[in-house]
Amino acid sequence: MSTIYRALTIAGTDPTGGAGIQADLKTFQELEVYGMSVITSLVAQNTTGVRAIHHVPLEFIDQQFQAVVDDIYPSAIKTGMIALPEMMELLQQQLNSHKNVPYVCDPVMMAKNGDPLLEKHVRAKLRETLVPLATIVTPNIAEAEDLIDMQIDDIDDMEKAAIRIVKELGAQSVVVKGGSLTGDAVDVFYSRETGLFKLDAPRTDTKHTHGTGCTFSAAICAQLAKGIALLDAVQKAKAFTADAITWSLQIGNGYGPTNHWGHRLNGLPGKNVNQ
Ligand SMILES: Nc1ncnc2c1ncn2[C@@H]1O[C@H](COP(=O)(O)OP(=O)(O)OP(=O)(O)O)[C@@H](O)[C@H]1O
Ligand SMILES: Cc1ncc(CO)c(N)n1
Hints:
With 275 residues, the protein is α/β, with parallel strands linked by helices. The chain has one domain (6-265): UDP-N-acetylmuramoyl-L-alanine:D-glutamate ligase. It has helices spanning 20-30, 58-71, 85-96, 123-129, 141-148, 155-169, 212-225, 230-246; strands spanning 6-12, 34-46, 49-55, 76-79, 103-105, 136-137, 173-176, 185-191, 195-201. The longest helix has 17 residues, at 230-246. It starts with 5 loop residues before the first strand and ends in a 29-residue tail after the last helix. The model has no long low-confidence stretch (mean pLDDT 94). It holds the Pfam family Phos_pyr_kin.
């Protein structure tokens, strides 16, 4: 039998299915990687915003993680919304014990409409605990600004931020996502081995971008689970995410979700299938 690649996401939930754990699992599935999940926080949210958050007790997060790794060992791990400092410390310990597994750290701080998923005072802890362990960290502009405390206005700033995140915070590599800037959707990748790389995709004129970041980091995780080299993994994930945004879904009353099966629709006429 061929190898079964296994990816584990450790994150919060989105009951409308567009972001968080649900987006990660859909992405893993589309990329033919067996998906597993450890839930850190239950989030009552939809495409318009976050209504309430219920954190899973620390001990139970630990039990979920142990249950997974004792049985189906992941080929790559991703973290998304990790809201409390004690959760970060627990995961720091766990990830330190599994350093051989590629680790994608998506430093989730807020939902698309700006609602916070991580309190401001906890952000320094994320910088100290999880970011240094990352094979790759995937901040958007606001998250990168927070991580290294600098303002980012353009691609030059993104490049400076990317280099600083690796050199000052200790992550192995970074991709700073330019989704919130204008013009083409340019992201900046940096690792000490490869130097700076720009990832470019045409910007899709849509507001339906709920969960783009989760989808992108989950796609990187899935590619790493398959043993694909880092820069190649990021480039493949960028193409997958661009397709998911090209074919994003006009559902819900706010920022609609990306379309995880978008990569299967290339070459077909029309966009925004559904309603
Ligand atoms: N309108 C768009 N057209 C094409 N690509 C986009 C668009 N918006 C975002 N992207 C791409 O999607 C990926 C995710 O970036 P983004 O900055 O949206 O992440 P994010 O803010 O963390 O998302 P979220 O918080 O909703 O999960 C990046 O590769 C970015 O360039
Ligand atoms: C649980 C969760 N993680 C991440 C995001 C960011 O898209 C979100 N909205 N919800």
